[in-house]
Automatic annotation (TrEMBL), chain B:
PANTHER family: DESICCATION-LIKE PROTEIN, OS05G0151100 PROTEIN. This is Ferritin-like domain-containing protein. It comes from Methylobacterium planeticum. Transmembrane segments: none annotated. PROSITE patterns: TAT.
Amino acid sequence: MASASFLELNLGKAFAQRGASLAGGALDLGRGDFAVLNYAYALEQLEAAFYTQVLQQPYRGFNARDEQILTGIQQHEVAHREFFRSALGGNAIPDLQVDFQRVNFSSRQSVLTTARTFEDLGVAAYNGAGQLLSNPDFLAKAGSIVSVEARHAATIRDLLNPFSPAFAGNDVVDASGLDGALLPSQVLPKATPFVVTPVSASQLP
Amino acid sequence: MTTQPTLLDTLDPDLTARLTSRRGLFSRAAGSLGALATAPTVLAVASTEAFAQGLPGQVVDVLRFALTLEYLEAEFYQTALASRGLIPGRYRPVFQQIAKHEVAHVRLLQGALGTAAIPKPTFDFTARGKYQDVFESFDTFTTLSSTFEDLGVAAYKGQAGNLQGTPVLTTALQIHSVEARHAAEVRRVRGFIGWDGAFDAPQTKAQVLAAAMPFIAGGV
């Protein structure tokens, strides 16, 4: 039976050839466009896993309207994840092991506030990552995803505070009418509590 | 005195300097053409000169295009909010928030463009009579609102490639996702789900202008 360190060593070897690497137990995303795509892939993995669990473990008061919305979002996140998996091919990082212990899946409030965190974070992550991409095709694809994440964010916010300014609240959109834009070094610490395998982006800003 | 936040704040100093010097260029062009020069003529001349001097003409073009759309949205919501009986009280906070953002986007883009900013076109939100009750019927109003927001999302998305490698890209993306939040919320106000699918499609400038043209009285 393979020990954990043996697996780690082999994964490390594999990624050394592809940019991404395992260093000190953390998965590093490597450099360049593949690193940015792996960064997005990691976030989409996290989101897809979250909504999959939400659907498997419906909260109290999970009505048809909530189900339609959360099913739609889950399908989108899976489609995004699969897009990156396919685009990255052999350069893709492995499946991340997630940790949603801090989420109370039986509580609508807990699920939706977590969803809000993920969606707002996703929007800011894509907004900040666009400038890191060199390939125009990747930028176009990221653009076609980020606005869908923003639609999710607005919808989840509206479920929490219907028809209030919250869908694009002053807590996320500044006085110039701008949404957030965060760099990987700002985003990853916020995602860390939900991921067992630490992910680092030492060669991204 | 508080300074208006502008796109220039997010640009690198070198580009800011070049854009700022562009304002001097504009003055010279206006002076040489004298009283005969109409604003669009002057802008065309300045744009050509700017391009010839290696200034980011492509960025200026994108920002002007964006400003046209933001002018349209800002006036649309301001008119709607001032139209008594149009927006039910329950939905008013939504449209107040959207209007606030569109006005902020206009200011941001005007600030970035400086004297290269285009003046606000004259709008006809009835689209030459097609939507006569746009500011009387909440259904007509939200139909157009939804159209404008989705159009704005597709328009910014379509310009991302033209801004790649410039510091303006991030700012444009930050506007783009706010427009997408608006688009989703207006769909919800209309009783629909906030999206079409997992991937939003871009539109070219020509496609967007063709869609917007019926609402711009004097053309672009």
